[in-house]
Every structure is written in C-alpha cells, then in structure tokens.
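Reopening this ticket.

The earlier resolution said the output was attached, but the attachment link was broken on my side. Pasting everything inline this time so it's all in one place.
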Amino acid sequence: MSSTKKKIAVIGGGFAGLGSVASLKEIGCFEPICFEKTSNYGGTWCYRETACEGVPSIMPTTIINYSKEMAALSTFPPRKEFNNFMRHHELFKYVSEFAAERDLLRHFQFDTEVMQVKRSEDYEKSGKWVVTVRNTQTTKVTTDVYDGVIVCVGHINRPKMPTYFGQSTFKGQIMHTHSLRGVQPFHNKTVIVVGMGCSGLDAAVETSIVAKQVYLSTRSGAHVINRIGPSGYPYDYTLLRRYLLGLLDFLPATFVSWILETFYLDQCKFSSYWFTPTIWTWISTW
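Inline output:
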C-alpha cells in the first residue's frame, strides 16, 4: 500500500460498497478496504438458500424493478442477452463481471463484521477514525486507524415484523418475506400476505402458484406501475427524465404526483380491485 494514499474503510460489500471501492480506486489517491460480514459480495442481490439474520434477503424468483439500461453502471453496460428487467441471478452476474473487470475483490475482507467506529483521539487535528472489526470465523478482533469511513450497509438487512391482536393464539404459520425461500409449505392452504410493497407482491405471486387461496392485505392501497411503458419501452425510460425531476423544484409534490398518476402510472381502475390508494405517489415513494 502506498504511504501517500489515504486509507478508507468501506462498511458493506453490496452494490453501494462495490461502487464506493470502484470510485475510490478510480480517483487514485485512496486505498479502500471493504469489510463484508458474509462470505460473499453483492448484498441484497446475492441469493442465499437460507435466510441469515442481519443480511438482506430476496426470493428465488425476484426480478429487479428497473430496466437494465437505467440501472446500469454508466461505464459498464449489461450484456445484451440479459432480460430487460434482470432476474436476480443476472444482476449478480452483472455486478460480478464489473467487480472482476475493476479488480475490486482484492480490496475486500470477507467474514468480517465491523464492531465499532469512533473518532481518533486526535480527530480534531487529523480527521482520522478508529475502526474495530471481528472475523466471524475465527472471532479475532482487530483495530486500525483510517482516514475516512464510508457506510454502505443499506436499510433492508433486518425484517420489520409487526404484531397483531390475537396473534399469539393463531394456529397457522407466521413468517416474514425475509425468510421465504420455497412455497411448497403453503400447498393447498389459505394464505394472507400483509403489505403491498415489492416483497409483498412477490410473495403473493409465488404462493398463488400452490396455495388454495391467497389474500393480499393493504392498509393504504398502492399505485401499480407496469414495467412496460409507452411504445413498448421500459417504464423508467419515461419516468426518469430531467424535466419531471425539475418540476419538484417549484411545484408541490401533490401536483407532481397527480401528473404521474394521470398520465403515466395508474392504468387500471383501482376500485375494481379494492385497493384504491389513499396517498400520493411521490409522497409514498420518497
């Protein structure tokens, strides 16, 4: 390691962590060290057969909600043969090829959990940080000083499980989508999926293949966005435009939501399906 380069600790080896390491390498005056507490990179999009506590999770059939062109790294386009909306294994393949092409993994320390980050004693003068990590395989704890820290742990690494009146007396199975790996346990059963977000919709579709009946419960409805937009192009080609984002600078979010819902998003009659949304699109999204 060059003594002239500043040492940067990157916490988390998901997409944000990989992107941070790549950017630091590209700048040239930094030496990144990425701490990833699991044995692999990719974060949410690294599919695991078994759900792990504190680790993001996806289902076997999960598909990304952005088109491959709009979700791509600007200097590294995905393969042409990948689906327009990549399946999770395609997205992981894509980021793996990016990591190999940029030689990112030599900057990774796998099976390493960050235990503590604090300012150094001379922080006011040096601006340095003290980082303590633990190897999850050997339990060895080490501490080192870094010139900077980038936190890339994401926000969906722990399931949020609600509680309901009478839940303790329910005789059936209760689980979070974080743990959903196969749908055979729901064969010929009646299932209720609580929540109409991305995971809830994925779970409803998957379980409906084998379940006797699936109910989808939503507190405030939802806006349904078709992946296919005008002229057959992916929807985000239409939505992710400078002029739409520019409207937010001088128009109320409610008015921008009305524009989106009237001309772009809501292409079905919600009352027919009993999930009329009660909140504006832009407000519920951000």
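Reporter confirms the inline version is readable. The chain has a mean pLDDT of 89. The radius of gyration is 22 Å.
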